[in-house]
C-alpha cells in the first residue's frame, strides 16, 4: 500500500516549482502518494505541466499562508495558523499522512513540529540528524546539527539513543557504532559537556557506544553515529558543505586546465559523476527531526527537485521503519 507523504509546497527558496516537480518524480519512482500543501491557484498550473498528462498520485491540499525564511520563527508559528507547515503537520498528527517534508525555515519547522506533533516519551528536545558519506560506502549519521545550541549530558544521551535507532532501522546498519564527537579519543579530552556525558553513555546497555570520536571519524567509517550539541554539529555541517563545494569546483577547474586533462576528463566522466553524487546534499534528502511524535524531514532552502524527491523517499522510509516506537522503548529501558 502506498505511503502518504505531505510536502510543504511553499518552503524552498524557489518554491513552489521544485516541490511540485520533486513530488511528481517521487510519485513516479516510489510507492508513495504525495500531498502538496499550498495555494491551489499557484500549484495547479505547475502540477499540470509537470504531470504531462500522466495520472499520478499527487494531490493539492489548500493552505492560504506560508512561513518565509525572513519570518521570525516563533512569531510566524503563532500568527500564521493556516501555514503550509501547520496544515501539513496536522495531517501527520491526525494519521492522514505518514510523514512531512519541508525545505523551509528550519526554526519554524522545528517549532511547528513540536507544537503540532508533540514530543516522544522520554525525549526532552528534538535533534536534527543528517546523513554523511564515508570512504567505506556506508553512510554515517551526525546529530544534533542545529536544533539545540546549548545541551546538557541527558540531551546527548537521548540523541545517542535516537541516532542509534535511526541508523539501525532506516540506514539498515547492524548494531551501529555510536561515538561522542570530541577533540580526542581519550576520555579526558573535550570540554565539560563531553566529559560529563561520556560515563552516562558508557552506562547505556541499549546502544553500541564505542567512546569518543574525532572529526575525521565522520568520514572514515570508524563510527556510524556521531553525537554532539547543535552548536558543534552545525559548524561541522556547514564546514563539510563548504569543503564539498571547494573540492568539486577545484577538481572541475583542474580537469579543464590543459588539453591532456580535458581528454582525461572525458575518459573519467563516469568517475567524476560518481564523485559529485557522493558529495551532493540532494542525494540525502534533508535532515531528520528526531524526537517528535511523527516524521518530519527538513531540507535545504536551496533544495532542487531531486532533493525534494529524495526528501519524500527518506520520509517514507522513516515512517515504514517505525523508528519512534523503538526510541521510546530504548529510553524506557535505559
Protein described:
The protein is α/β, with parallel strands linked by helices and 334 residues long. The chain has two domains: 1-123 and 291-322, Isopropylmalate Dehydrogenase (3-Layer(aba) Sandwich), CATH 3.40.718; 124-283, Isopropylmalate Dehydrogenase (3-Layer(aba) Sandwich). The protein has twelve helices and eleven strands. It has helices spanning 17-29, 40-51, 73-79, 84-93, 106-117, 153-169, 192-203, 230-256, 259-267, 269-279, 305-321, 323-333, and strands spanning 3-8, 32-38, 58-62, 99-102, 127-132, 140-143, 177-181, 208-213, 225-227, 287-290, 296-298. The protein has an eleven-stranded mixed sheet, sandwiched between helices. It is globular, with a radius of gyration of 20 Å. It starts with a strand and ends with a helix. The model has no long low-confidence stretch (mean pLDDT 89).
Q: Give the proportion of residues in helices.
A: 40-55%
Structural class assignment: alpha/beta
What is the CATH level 1 assignment of the largest domain? Alpha Beta
Strand line-up in the sheet with most strands:
3-2-1-4-11-10-5-6-9-7-8
The largest pleated sheet is described as: 11 strands, mixed
**What separation lies between the terminal Cα atoms?**
35 Å
Function: Catalyzes the reversible formation of acyl-phosphate (acyl-PO(4)) from acyl-[acyl-carrier-protein] (acyl-ACP). This enzyme utilizes acyl-ACP as fatty acyl donor, but not acyl-CoA.
Subcellular location: Cytoplasm
EC number: 2.3.1.274
Subunit structure: Homodimer. Probably interacts with PlsY.
